[in-house]
Amino acid sequence: MHWEVSPTYDPYQDPGPQEPEETKKAMPEREEADEIQHEDYDRYITAIVCVPQGGGGSYGTVMKRKRGIDGELQGRSNANPILDISVYEVEFDDGSTEAYLANIIAEHIYLQVDGEGYTQYMLNEIVDHKKDGTTVSKEDGIITTKAGRKLPRQTPKGW
Length: 159
Known about the structure:
alpha+beta
């Protein structure tokens, strides 16, 4: 019987992904990256927020940063929402737009979110509700349990 000795090799050392030298120099430092003002990286754009409008609150969508006559972005963004004075255009359901400061938008976003991060919407009223003869009245309504028992529907207090 002929035995062969398995060869031994040096362990492979993976240096990780390599970037070209010019790319490394082109990337801004962390502090510089925070200063970049660009709409593609904006956290407010496409947010739906209830903002003050005409004495009440109206839901609108943050569409874009507002630009001046010279084409430059208005205001200055900041990682701290309280210090963020950038200006945004908010479009409402009726097609109208208004300018709002980012700190106002941020404040109203935080007002809509509960402690677990869920958005809360408010319903003021139901408009144009109609009832026809095909609906079941509260008195005639029943609930069928999983066991098949039929029980009268309990009407919540205040209805």
